[in-house]
Amino acid sequence: MAKVPVQFTLNGSEKAEFIESGTTLLHALRDKIGDTSPKGGCHQGTCGACSVIIDGELRLSCLTLAETCNGADVRTTAGLADGGVLHPLQRAFLDAFATQCGFCTPGMIMAAKALLDRKPNPSREDVVEALSGNICRCTGYEPIIQAVLTAARANSQNAA
Amino acid sequence: MSLVLQTFSSVKDANAALQASGTRYLGGGTLVVRAANEGDVSVSSLVRVTDPDLSQVAVSGDRAQLGASVTMAAIARHPELAALAPAARAVGGPAIRNMATVGGNLFAPAPYGDFAVALLALDATVAAEAGEMPIEAFLAGRDTSRAVVTAVGFSLPKPESFRFLKVSRIKPKGVSVLSIAAHLQHTADGTITSARIALGCMADRPMRAKTAEKALLGCRLTAEEIAPALSAVGEGISPITDPIASAWYRAEVLPVHLGRLLLA
């Protein structure tokens, strides 16, 4: 099958690939580009493990065709750390023991980042709503909610 | 996966391409890419349109027109569409709402399609290249529709005359047990003069509760006066059975939730 070119920015770096038409962004990221931070969970839009931020909006990479991302700004969890320094959300997830098996974590962190980018001081209800499309089978959610609230507090203290 | 995406700048060209067998329209991807991921081999080709008109929201007086590519998130945050925000927020989680479109929701099989339930209660019109048609006729014929939906139009309800309820087992985001939208007009003393009630999950697509609508006329919203409407709301329903709830359960709880919505 003829391949089609796709070009987008991934975590600030230009990426250009030839892919088969109809390839999902999740497949392109993981298997063509090598960014395995978005996870393939249900491939049905139910679990949120593949969540990425495209042009500032949280999206599911398993339901997004890579060809529709031409020219887009794509952000994944792999691009959050600054060298060896973790992003405040990553640090808070570690400190709060908000990961157990860790499979849902990259999606949770991107959903939380989309929230904090829009609303730096969210309420607990805001966090619950923002994470409502992401499923975790290990933690019971509470440590994740606490981690996001902690990261938000850390951000606002840094900004003050 | 052998899926080919064709991108067009005009609806006219996309409509021509949609006539080929195995071709479906790609809106936000939450239905057709999901189907392809699940192994639905009836989908071999996808068509999309990049015309920015499809993403426009136009509100003029009490008339609203939503382009078919307008997302649930865009509706939920639009200041002039506040009456519809609860129905838009009822769809999926935040990521799904950033992707799922008005046009796609019209095609979503039960238990999905909660926003279309609201549009049915509002007696929306569905526009395609060939013209507009009432949403009820559109929903009835949607399985054989081969034309790109371009927009939906409706009269904006007064906030107090429009009610929407989605029942799900998981909060804040879960698949529908059922959804109900009610558009009610009443006189100053609260007597109902017109009622349009739409139900989700009570068939394979949104449907109206016409007997209950008739039973509400002339009533005020008290437990006693709405009782006949609650008794009648199950008439003609054929609820779905899925892992969320059985048809029996959905039919049993429908009058309870309609009662709560009307008395709220």
From TrEMBL, chain A:
The keyword Protein transport does not apply. Signal peptide: none annotated. It holds the Pfam family Fer2_2. PANTHER family: OXIDOREDUCTASE WITH IRON-SULFUR SUBUNIT, XANTHINE DEHYDROGENASE IRON-SULFUR-BINDING SUBUNIT XDHC-RELATED. InterPro entries: 2Fe-2S-bd (IPR002888), 2Fe-2S-bd_dom_sf (IPR036884), 2Fe-2S_ferredoxin-like_sf (IPR036010), 2Fe-2S_ferredoxin-type (IPR001041), 2Fe2S_fd_BS (IPR006058), Beta-grasp_dom_sf (IPR012675), Diverse_Oxidoreductases (IPR051452). The keyword Aminoacyl-tRNA synthetase does not apply. The lineage of its organism: Bacteria, Pseudomonadati, Pseudomonadota, Alphaproteobacteria, Hyphomicrobiales. This is (2Fe-2S)-binding protein. Keywords: 2Fe-2S, Iron, Iron-sulfur, Metal-binding, Oxidoreductase. Residues 4-80 form the 2Fe-2S ferredoxin-type domain.
TrEMBL record, chain B:
The keyword Flavoprotein applies. Residues 1-159 form the FAD-binding PCMH-type domain. SUPFAM superfamilies: CO dehydrogenase flavoprotein C-terminal domain-like (SSF55447), FAD-binding/transporter-associated domain-like (SSF56176). Keywords: FAD, Flavoprotein, Oxidoreductase. Coiled coil: none annotated. InterPro entries: CO_DH_flav_C (IPR005107), CO_DH_flav_C_dom_sf (IPR036683), Diverse_Substr_Oxidored (IPR051312), FAD-bd_PCMH (IPR016166), FAD-bd_PCMH-like_sf (IPR036318), FAD-bd_PCMH_sub2 (IPR016169), Mopterin_DH_FAD-bd (IPR002346). The keyword Oxidoreductase applies. SMART domains: CO_deh_flav_C (SM01092). This is FAD binding domain-containing protein. The lineage of its organism: Bacteria, Pseudomonadati, Pseudomonadota, Alphaproteobacteria, Hyphomicrobiales.
